[in-house]
Amino acid sequence: MSPARTVRATALPQGSVIASRLPGAQFADCFEAADPTPDSSALQTWLDMVKQTPGWTRALMALRNRLVRMVGLKAVGQLHDGTRQTEAGYRVGDLVGFFEIRHLGEREVVMGVDDRHLNVQVSLHKRMQDGQAVLALSSVVHIHNALGHTYMAVIAPFHRRIVRTLLARVDAGAPAAASPQNPPRA
Length: 186
What we know:
This protein is of the alpha+beta class. It has helices at 17-20, 42-50, 55-69, 146-169; strands at 8-9, 27-34, 95-96, 99-104, 108-114, 118-129, 132-143. A seven-stranded antiparallel β-sheet has the order 1-2-7-6-5-4-3. It is globular.
C-alpha cells in the first residue's frame, strides 16, 4: 500500500468479526488505508479518527438527524458525541458516539445502531498485510423494510465519502482536509 492517505475499496477482512455479520445483509462495504498508529488498539484508533470528523460531515449528520425525525426514525447525533479521549473504561454495550460497542478486541472493534428501518454495524479492523499495517473500516447493513431501502439509496453515496475522508484524515499529520468537492482518491 502506498502513502497513508491512499484509501481504497476492498473486501471485508477475512476472519474478522464484521465478516461474520455479513449473512443476510443487503449492504456492505469496506475501505482500507495504511495504519499510522499500528500499536494503538482498534478502539483508540476509532476515537482518534472521529475526533477529526470534518465540519461538512457534522453538517450532513445534523441535516440527516432533522430529516429522519420527520419519518419517525432515530436522530442519532454525531460520530464523536460523548466520546472520551482514551479507550480506558469502555466495554461491550457502552456507547461510542451514537454506536453501541458490540465486540471489543485489541485489533477490531464492532459497533452498531439499530432502528426500525435497518440495523448498521461498523468495524475498525487493524492487521498486517504484506509487511504493512492496515486499517479497514467496514459497514454491514441489514435492511428491514422499504424505508430502509430508500434510506440506504439516499445515504450510501454520502456514507462512502465520509468513510473515505475519515480514513484519509486518520494520519494526525494530514495537512489538507478532504471535502465533498475534493475527496480522497480511491
